[in-house]
Amino acid sequence: MCGRTSCHLPIDVLARACAYRDRQGRERLPEWKDPDKYCPSYNTSPQSNSPVLLSRLHFEKGADPSERIIAPMRWGLVPSWFKEDDPSKLQFNTTNCRSDTIMEKRSFKSGSTDVVESPEHWKKVWDNWRLLTMAGIFDCWEPPEGGDLLYSYTIITVDSCKSLNDIHPRMPAILDGEEEVSKWLDFGEVSTQEALKLIHPTENITFHAVSSVVNDSGNNTPECVTPISLLVKKEPKASRSSQKMMQWLATKSPKKEDPKTPQKTESDVPQWSNQFLQKSPLPTKRGATGLLERWLKQEEPVAKRPHNK
């Protein structure tokens, strides 16, 4: 269902947008883990990295679970039990997971809760906008023969709200507000069953249509998220072959008559009789070729006379 996200904020701006209050009520900014793996993008597609907000307790034993970390992760969950040496060999799609089967499917059972941050706006600077906080689960996969750990995630989806139902029957599970985000992240204090109660459709969302350029994951420009109503319509540029055709037509088209050329007198105009043209002085040709030539010369073929028996 959810196949594109957008997070093009610079590292420091994204951290400020994720500001929160810890258990003592102090305003804090989350710390970055592997910030060099974060690449701001207007058009994030599956299997690329996106910033994920999660509890510090996932990385540090004994840490305050209310403290938060931002970590870039691969979109498309690779389960820790996956035994192949290449994540691309995973035979099923883990970009999204349905809220109604999240506790049943084996691929999602051993994961932990997190929040996927993806601001949907078209401004270059963070300016009084809220991040679109989508609930998800993540896991850590270690290659069987050793190597770097791979953190990956999947976005939880629910039935669409009324305003989005005409677009798609599913929508991301959105954590609406700081309280819901805190409960979802604090797995040390909030049970899984309690956390899942936060997963439901919400109407507190705005949306707009964008250009079809977002369909190509190779496009990474502001046009991918800009409302289509704000885009300047460009005149379509003729292809090279079309330009050549136009040049050929311009050279082959009949020249316009010189306005100084004297017009034909009435006597020069062919006279019509019984709706037939006068007899052509050219010899009659039989067959389709002859008929075509007469038509091109705007002459009407002479009607065949009946044979006498």
TrEMBL record:
Family to which the UniProt record says this protein belongs: Belongs to the SOS response-associated peptidase family.
Function: Sensor of abasic sites in single-stranded DNA (ssDNA) required to preserve genome integrity by promoting error-free repair of abasic sites. Acts as an enzyme that recognizes and binds abasic sites in ssDNA at replication forks and chemically modifies the lesion by forming a covalent cross-link with DNA: forms a stable thiazolidine linkage between a ring-opened abasic site and the alpha-amino and sulfhydryl substituents of its N-terminal catalytic cysteine residue. The HMCES DNA-protein cross-link is then either reversed or degraded.
Origin species: Felis catus
EC number of the protein: 3.4.-.-
Composition skew (Polar residues), residue ranges: 268-278
Annotated region (Disordered), positions in chain: 236-309
Gene3D superfamilies noted in UniProt: SOS response associated peptidase-like (3.90.1680.10)
Protein's recorded name: Abasic site processing protein HMCES
Basic and acidic residues biased stretches: 254-267, 294-303
Keywords: Covalent protein-DNA linkage, DNA damage, DNA-binding, Hydrolase, Lyase, Protease
Superkingdom classification of source: Eukaryota
One Pfam family of this chain: SRAP
